[in-house]
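User: What would this chain look like folded?
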Amino acid sequence: MTRQEILTSLSQSELKAYLAKIGQPAYRAGQIFKWIYHSGKSQLPEFTDLPLGLRQRLQKEFIINPLKLKETASSKDGSIKYLFELPDGNFIETVMIPAAGRKTFCLSTQVGCKFHCAFCASGLHGFKRNLEAGEIVSEVLNLKFVYGHQPTNLVLMGMGEPLDNLDNVLKAIRILNDQYGLAIGARRMTVSTVGLIPALRKLMNFDLQINLSLSIHSALEEKRSQLMPVNKKYPLEELIKAGQDYLKAGGRQLTLEYIVIGGFNDLLYDAEALTAISRRLKAKVNLIAYSPVTGFKWQPPAREEVERFQKWLEERKVRVTVRQSRGLDIAAACGQLAGKFQ
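Assistant: Here's the prediction, encoded as structure tokens.
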């Protein structure tokens, strides 16, 4: 038996082309999209306005929901982590994060990660593969229709490096943004990157105004290389210049993500260097206190240390927010739960 394709990997235009190939009218694509994205159905026999023969053919060739729930973990702060098993036996994590009337879904884009940042659990077990567009889309569909969460924002900041899987990530974003899909506004979606400059330059040509977040974590080249080996290939200064080009090309406002590690990147001269980058990129800064990961040497900062670092930035007129570490009691840092099963 040939491998079933994932139906949610098809854009509406691709679905129309497939239907034309098998002698079906184009309007069937709209019907299928409505069943999946409006009614939340994942079993083709339930698509009752489609001819029986078409349903049977689709059921033979496609799967709608490729994700199987393996485990959930609920935090006292309201965050819920979902561990999903993929058809090939690999695992990914998706997190629902509630805050101030919003529900943000944190999505994975790869199984594992190639980039081995020295504070992140996602790469501890190596890189397995990219997620298909339909697998990314299915993360959202499961949380919305199976587990009852209404997404207000999507952040592609889970397991993996989104720009290392750029084609599938952008395809998933288009499907989720499609007015006949979930119609999630592009400005409610954020893509994070460790700084893959060639892919970032490709992103400049993307016609949806999604938000971009740059993972900085140190504003000093030598320290950043200790934390993020990718900095040796794509140095921070080159990333800043690429960010400036992104803004000139009409990109949305940039955010700098900065994990505060106790005694390492939380000193006054770290704040001054981060201020300089923020000014050059007209970027706001998100501070996140480091969440401890077994096997790594880093220490989480005390609350007073994060507040001191925030104050230094604010005194220098940097727009800064402190993003609370969520789900510490459920190992919500990327890759920690999946690591138990890989």
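Residues 5-63 form a domain with the DNA polymerase; domain 1 fold (CATH 1.10.150.530). If you want, I can go into more detail on any region.
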